[in-house]
Amino acid sequence: MTRTIRRRTLLSAAVATPMLARHGWAQAAYPNKTLRMVVPFAPGGTTDLLGRIAAQYLTETLGQQVVVDNKSGAGGNVGAEIVAKAPPDGYTLLLGTIGTGVTNQFLYKTMPYDSVKSFVPIALFGEVANVLAVNPNMPVKTVAEYVEYCKKQGDNKVSFGSPAVGGSGHLAMEYFESLAGFRVEHVVYRGSSLVLKDLLAGHIPSTMDNLPPYLPHIQSGALRALGVSTSKRWFALPDVPTIAESGYPGFDAAPWWYVAAPAGTPAEIVKKLSDDLVKASKDPEVIKRIRDAGAAELGGSSEDLARFMAAETVKWRKVVEAAKLEPQ
C-alpha cells in the first residue's frame, strides 16, 4: 500500500512538472490577452485619433487586440486616474496629453494621481502645432508686426481667443507674451469651433490655438497665419515661419501625446512597448495616418520621454506662475 501511494505521488509530480513549466512560460509570455488603451478624451478629437492609430499598430505588432477605451473628464484626469490605479501588468495603457503629463498638476487644486510617480513612461507619439492666426483685417503680416501692434495699442487692448483657460493655446500665448513683453486680453470660448467662427467674422482679431480646424481657412486666405508654435516649420504650412525663427529662439509650445503605463509595470514589458512605438514613429504608413489626423509623428523612447517631460514640467511651471493662473 505504501509503495503504491509513493509510486502515484512520484508519477503525479513527474506529470505536474512540465505542466507547471508550461504554465510559467505562458505567464511570462506577453501579451497573452487583450490590452486596453485608455484615451482620456471623447471620441473624434485628435487625442482619440492618435490613440486609435497607436492601438492599431500595437495590435498588429503584439499579436493581441488593443482596445481603445474613451474616458473623458477633468481635462484628461479621469482617464489618467483609471490607468494610474490599474494593475501594473502591461495590459492597461494611457494615451496621455501634455495636460495629463505636465500642465494639469498646476491647474487643478486636487489631482487624483501624481503626474510622475503614478506612471512609467513608454514613448512619445505625436505633436500638433498651435498657430498664431489673425483676421486679415488686422494690419499685421508677421509675428514682429503683431508684437509691435499689440505694444502700441497698450496692454490688453488687443484680444485673442482660445477654447480654454489653461489650454495649450492659452498657455502658448502666455509663454509668448512673457518672452515678447506685451499683454493681450484672453477671450475664452467653449470650443475651437466658436473661436474660429468669431475670428472669421472679425469679432476677435487673433487666436493662438491648435492648428487643424484653422488650416483650411488659412489655406483659402480667409485667415492669416503669422507663426506656428513648433520648434520647426509645420509640414502642412511650410511657408509659415515658426515663432522661434521670428525673433524668439527656443520658443516651443506644441501640445504633445505619449503612451504610459501604471507605475511598477515590469521593465521588460515597458521596453517591448517602447521599442514597438519608436518603430511606429518611423513607419511610413503610421506617419501618414498621424499626419492625416492633423498631427505629426514624435518618436522617443521611455528614457527620452522621461527627460522630455521633466524639461516640459520646468518650462510650464514657470509659465503658469508668471501668468498667475490660480488652480481651479
TrEMBL record:
The keyword Amino-acid biosynthesis does not apply. Gene3D superfamilies: Bordetella uptake gene, domain 1 (3.40.190.150), Periplasmic binding protein-like II (3.40.190.10). Keywords: Receptor, Signal. Residues 1-28 form the signal peptide. Belongs to the UPF0065 (bug) family. PANTHER family: BLR1237 PROTEIN, TRICARBOXYLATE-BINDING PROTEIN. This is Tripartite-type tricarboxylate transporter, receptor component TctC. It comes from Enhydrobacter aerosaccus.
